[in-house]
Amino acid sequence: AQRVTQPEKLLSVFKGAPVELKCNYSYSGSPELFWYVQYSRQRLQLLLRHISRESIKGFTADLNKGETSFHLKKPFAQEEDSAMYYCAGGTSYGKLTFGQGTILTVHP
Amino acid sequence: DTAVSQTPKYLVTQMGNDKSIKCEQNLGHDTMYWYKQDSKKFLKIMFSYNNKELIINETVPNRFSPKSPDKAHLNLHINSLELGDSAVYFCASSLLLGGATTEAFFGQGTRLTVV
Fold it and tell me: Which of A42, A94, A98 has the CB atom closest to B94's CB atom?
């Protein structure tokens, strides 16, 4: 069965510090992996996906098949990055399997 | 222009009641979903409809019944509500392209509280 794990429920950093949100997956075949973000009082929205290999709001995520990881990174965290972050794996029929979520708090 | 909209945003009801949550998307997507977010913020898929056909039905009590009158709407009806049904329910939609997962757009959520 597909499984996505985010080991950290809470993550706190100071503004300007690097941040890494961990995500590991367990999938058969080639997974489609995503990071979704939920800012306070806003709806869940896509941050980035591994296929596009792009950087959004300074965040990047690289798929590491050897380690079965898809960690989200940003070299310099900003206060506005404070949010709930979900790693998710996609399967056929568009089903998303979410990790448990990580609440990122960036302190001034 | 709200892409995926759910109503109501908040719903407080007593145990045993029957309630519905409505969802509409104006993105022209062919697939819609219901997700449940529990008190620990864990998100889990409940149902998915593609072109009005049920394609995903996770292990959900049969008190929950989705209905898709057309591609743009997916409603969730819940019978005999229980305390454990209290959660935030998210509707989402996406386009299925050859079975690949595309970006899912989410509604703002419906916070259901059963008392």
Answer: A94
